[in-house]
Amino acid sequence: MSDAPVVTAVSRSATHDFSKRNEPSVRLLTGLGIEGDAHSGVTVKHRSRVARDPSQPNLRQVHLIHAELHDELAAAGYTVVAGDMGENITTRGVDLLGLPTGARLRLGATALVEITGLRNPCPQLNGFQAGLMQAVLDRDADGNVIRKGGIMGIVLADGDVHPGDPITVTLPPLPHTPLAPV
Description:
Elements: E1 6-12, E2 21-23, E3 26-29, E4 33-34, H1 47-52, E5 62-66, H2 67-75, E6 89-92, E7 104-107, E8 111-118, H3 124-128, H4 132-135, E9 137-139, E10 145-147, E11 151-157, E12 159-161, E13 167-170
Domain MOSC: 21-170
Protein name: MOSC domain-containing protein
InterPro entries: MoCF_Sase_C, MOSC_domain, Pyrv_Knase-like_insert_dom_sf
């Protein structure tokens, strides 16, 4: 079995549902996001952000979650699978939360996503499964909050992405900036 980073699932929803449906493939569109997804666009599409300022740039075009989080949640008694928490791309073998801002992920042959920041877990998680929001939050040794609900990015290059596609990570030049909520 290979430890090479891989896409394990791709998901989208044309409406602002909590969960997204798994697909055989999704198309990433430069500067927009996932074709046919409610969060695709040049400006913000998340409803709470649109309410504050609809002209903000969309730094949340693509939501990625590591499948290792699903494993961790399963061990804690939750039933969560790819797409359930609204992610578009589920990965395995990449420390998504450890990436710096500006890291780039080549997904499959041509799609390229630049990481913009962390997804801030929202209370809707508890509506999906009681206690889930707390389960995706943690604290480090210094008491700082660790947000485990995935990362967000923008699309730099078009491409079709399928489960099983390889992932190549390119880090930005030093010094690296840790991820913060976007």
